[in-house]
Design goal:
By secondary structure, the protein is α/β, with parallel strands linked by helices. It is built from twelve helices and nine strands. The strands form two sheets. The chain has a five-stranded parallel beta sheet with strand order 7-6-5-8-9. It has a four-stranded parallel beta sheet with strand order 2-1-3-4, sandwiched between helices. The longest helix has 19 residues, at 12-30. The relative contact order is 0.16.
């Protein structure tokens, strides 16, 4: 039994296998074919954070694959009435897989250690693996080969940025984080990345204009993620020079713009960029469903 808690859980060949499966399932979907690979299987969605793309894409994915899903929010007392261990033990008796969207990453580690079925990380403060897989699928569709591609993340070295750095290392991409000095990756993550994937091409820069030169993809996320609202004003000041706008994108005229959404137009990105010709945010969001289908089919095969 396998889990997908971070992209460190996969080998590089397994990452490629999931992407290839997503491409195949997406092509079948375009042709009107939805193979019931998970007929009568049940997916539990255990969420303590709001969600649009993660929830709906997983529910749609499970339906396309012939199974069903159960959305479990605060009504079941998640993180209130019972321990993560008890949730894992009991919930895995009813379902074939669990998607968990929560705050501290240690919670999902504990849930997975007591569950008798695969656990998938639908987002924690540390990692967002499903998002990163959808992002590289989107770039693959637009660029072709991912090997050697330059992927630049402008903003906080957060859960999304960490997952993109790992998936980039798996696929032979150059990953650049452009952020203020206090928001770059910490040494612990950098060491873990290089130990797990010695060929990782990771760069960090405090100059976003230099970082995005010759980029194949320019990516950003909100400056204040869920749970960081109390830091919002400070972060607006700290990230003032890191907005993705038309001036910045002129340094990367061939790049595709990506954003995991929701976005704050006028803050981390201008409307002219996110709604402009270089933006692929809708295709990126759509690919969440196709990658989710591949992850579920791969884990439950």
């Amino acid at each position: 039994m396998r889990n997908l808690l971070t992209l460190f859980d996969l080998t590089s060949s397994e990452v490629q296998e999931i992407i290839d499966l997503a491409i195949d399932l997406k092509q079948k979907w375009r042709n009107g074919v939805r193979p019931p690979l998970l007929e009568r299987r049940v997916l539990a969605l255990l969420f303590s954070k709001p969600s649009l793309r993660t929830r709906v894409s997983f529910e749609a994915a499970m339906t396309h694959l012939g199974g069903s899903s159960l959305y479990l929010g605060q009504d079941v007392g998640w993180q209130q009435r019972e321990s993560a261990a008890d949730f894992g033990r009991v919930l895995s008796q009813y379902s074939d897989a669990i998607v968990c969207r929560t705050h501290e990453h240690q919670i999902i580690d504990e849930l997975a250690s007591h569950a008798d079925c695969p656990v998938i990380n639908g987002l924690t403060d540390y990692a967002h693996p499903c998002q990163a897989l959808a992002d590289v699928l989107t770039l693959h569709e637009l660029r072709g080969s991912l090997s050697g591609a330059k992927f630049v993340f402008v903003g906080d070295g957060n859960n999304v940025a960490r997952s993109l750095a790992v998936v980039g290392a798996h696929l032979g991409m150059q990953f650049v984080l452009a952020a203020p000095a206090d928001y770059l990756f910490d040494d612990e993550f950098v060491d873990r990345l290089h130990q797990a994937l010695p060929k990782a091409q990771l760069e960090m820069s405090c100059d976003p204009h230099e970082a995005v030169r010759q980029a194949d993809a320019v990516y950003t996320d909100v400056w204040s993620s869920m749970g960081q609202e109390h830091e919002a004003e400070k972060r607006r000041v700290d990230f003032a020079g890191f907005q993705v706008n038309e001036k910045l994108m002129r340094q990367a005229p061939q790049a595709v713009f990506l954003h995991c959404l929701p976005a704050h137009r006028g803050e981390e990105v201008t409307a002219e960029v996110i709604d402009g010709p270089q933006s692929a945010i809708v295709a990126q969001a759509a690919n969440r469903m196709h990658v989710q289908k591949a992850i579920l089919a791969w884990l439950l095969r």
